[in-house]
Design goal:
The protein is an all-alpha fold. It has eight helices and no strands. It is a multi-pass membrane protein.
């Protein structure tokens, strides 16, 4: 992809997600979610991005399996477009949070988005590490269930069978596609230190350190909310009986 195509894809992605957000505004919303309508629209839009990106990332390696053997140079227009498309989403989401949320509430995600935009931007502009970026986007497989979890909670369905099933799948995919993927990427970066320029290595190392820390904290919060608390409540009921 030429630079003009990158700009067009990224800009088109920003516009697409803004239109999608506006479209969600016109759809029926659960009554319990009306208290925070912006968050419902934001998460719904993020859910669509995760769904599209998860399928797209898998297809990138399915269409070009040799990319897995060379994450630095090997890539296709299809995979390059995916990374550009995701940059557009993160720019959209960054602007959406700046407009509707207080800095004290969103600074962690804003910082996360800036790091992702910088790393992905470096990749699409230099036409290197595109495969590495696509591996990073495999975490969106888990994000599908993570966003669905938030939507179910906002809709007041945090106790039903669907929520419990989603919680189990969410936890499993979190370990496989977030924690394991981040660990594998960190290992790859260390093993390929001699093949990666200092700027790219520094950017990647800082990005991986931040992502790992944030994801460990998020994993603990999800585990505590969906499993540890429910176990505590069950133990209390048994003691009362």
């Amino acid at each position: 992809m030429e630079l003009s195509s990158v700009i067009l894809t990224t800009g088109g992605s920003v516009g697409f997600f803004r239109l999608l957000n506006a479209g969600v505004r016109k759809l029926p919303m659960p009554e319990s979610a009306c208290r925070n309508a912006w968050k419902w629209r934001n998460i719904s839009t993020s859910f669509v991005h995760s769904f599209i990106t998860a399928i797209w990332a898998v297809l990138c390696f399915f269409r070009q399996p040799q990319m897995a053997e060379d994450l630095i140079e090997t890539h296709s227009v299809f995979s390059h477009a995916l990374v550009s498309f995701s940059i557009g989403y993160f720019i959209y989401d960054f602007l959406d949070m700046v407009e509707y949320q207080k800095l004290s509430q969103s600074w962690e995600l804003l910082f996360h988005h800036m790091v992702v935009i910088a790393c992905f931007g470096f990749s699409v502009l230099t036409f290197r590490y595109v495969g590495f970026s696509v591996v990073a986007l495999m975490v969106e497989i888990n994000s599908v269930f993570l966003h669905l979890r938030q939507m179910l909670r906002m809709a007041g369905n945090a106790t039903g069978t669907l929520y419990r099933v989603n919680s189990i799948i969410n936890l499993g995919t979190y370990v496989v596609f977030r924690i394991n993927t981040l660990a594998w990427m960190t290992r790859w970066l260390v093993l390929n230190r001699d093949n990666v320029p200092l700027l790219a290595y520094t950017l990647g190392s800082v990005g991986m350190a931040i992502m790992t820390a944030m994801n460990i904290v998020l994993f603990y919060r999800v585990l505590k909310s969906d499993f540890l608390k429910s176990s505590t409540r069950e133990n209390k009921k048994e003691k009362e009986m």
